[in-house]
Design brief:
89 residues; alpha+beta; four-stranded mixed beta sheet; 3 helices; 4 strands; DUF1150; DUF1150 family protein
Length: 89
């Protein structure tokens, strides 16, 4: 006896567009970066000393929000803007 199993593709839970906007306006990520890496991420950044360790806060879509010299200051900036933060490694 041969048994045939029908399979159907599951419908995605959310569309690509919905996924791209997930967390927008409510989630931000915190990342420790060197001043050397920041030049490309913060286009309006004025001259900054090389080799500094800074904390950067980014919106869920990757847009830069703020820079701080201490983690607590970056977290305070997120709280002031009612953003839930996540850390990246």
């Amino acid at each position: 006896m041969t048994r045939t199993v029908e399979t159907t593709a599951a419908k995605p839970v959310m569309s690509t567009g919905e996924l791209a906007h997930l967390g927008e306006g409510s989630v931000a990520y915190l990342r420790k970066m060197s001043s050397d890496d920041l030049r490309g991420r913060f286009p309006g950044l004025s001259e900054i000393a090389p080799g500094l360790e800074l904390w950067a806060l980014f919106a869920a879509n990757g847009q830069p929000i703020l820079l701080a010299d201490e983690r607590d200051r970056a977290l305070a900036g997120a709280m002031e803007n009612d953003l839930t933060t996540v850390a990246t490694h």
